[in-house]
Amino acid sequence: MEVEILKKKKLRVTPFRKEVLDVFLKNEHAISIQDIEDALVEFDRITLYRTIKSFTNKGVIHEIVMPGDVKKLALCDGVCDHDSGLHEHNHIHFQCRLCSEVYCVEVDELPKIEVPGFTIEEQEIQAKGICAKCS
Amino acid sequence: MEVEILKKKKLRVTPFRKEVLDVFLKNEHAISIQDIEDALVEFDRITLYRTIKSFTNKGVIHEIVMPGDVKKLALCDGVCDHDSGLHEHNHIHFQCRLCSEVYCVEVDELPKIEVPGFTIEEQEIQAKGICAKCS
DNA sequence: AATACAAATGCAACAATATTGCATCTATGG
DNA sequence: CCATAGATGCAATATTGTTGCATTTGTATT
């Protein structure tokens, strides 16, 4: 599983990368760098940061920053494959007011915003409320 | 101007706070903490951080984090008045791909997203494209 | 299977960003 | 004008992220 994901994105397969990827695969919600550190038994912090950067650049994961919260990371759907900026997501980022977890939620269609004078090329939606589990 | 804003939000009026508020009033786009530091002649960095925190808590300003960019700050419309989380904005956050500036753009109506199982209470939209000036 | 080489790792040092404690000062309501 | 809660300034420290460099490892190629 981890191997296929890495190979598909042309990333070299190493034990450490598989471990990091495992942490993402074991969580259905977005995780913080601290969460990853807690899940790993022994690791080098610098290598972790570089791994995260590689994963982000190749579209394996993407960053999510909810207002007032630490940066979180989540697996991409498989369509992301560029080096910076917003990714082509068909999902919104949702944070639950009760459990504080951040989820990437699939939506059929994102509404198109129109703003006079501005050309909108990409957009992302961040929402807060109550998640399915806490309802 | 600065005094009214501060008093309305029940914040004590000090020379430093007026200076910081001035920096916001002089920019029509969101600014980084670095931008504020550059605009001030002599200041205490810790006091600046605390001022920003007070302003944010009282809804004078709000944080904007665009993917891959540093945190930026912008004045609130006047409707924000709570201590954390998303604010009740009627605008979207827009970053220009060319000049990199971040703008809060007023929109008549934000589209409502529906997600089965999730109760969405607040939402924020982040967009990228070309701004009015760079068009 | 051996090899060559680009890429990843691990360590040290450091840079940027943000917070806490505490003593002092000041804006504001009475 | 005074009392005092809140703001400031300084020192120390925490958190988060980066860079350089020597060494190791994964992968494609022979």
TrEMBL record, chains A, B:
It comes from Brumimicrobium oceani. Its cofactor is Zn(2+). This is Transcriptional repressor. Belongs to the Fur family. Zn(2+) binds at C96, C99, C131, C134. GO terms for molecular function: DNA-binding transcription factor activity; transcription cis-regulatory region binding; zinc ion binding. Keywords: DNA-binding, Metal-binding, Repressor, Transcription, Transcription regulation, Zinc. Binds 1 zinc ion per subunit. One of its GO terms (biological process) is regulation of secondary metabolite biosynthetic process.
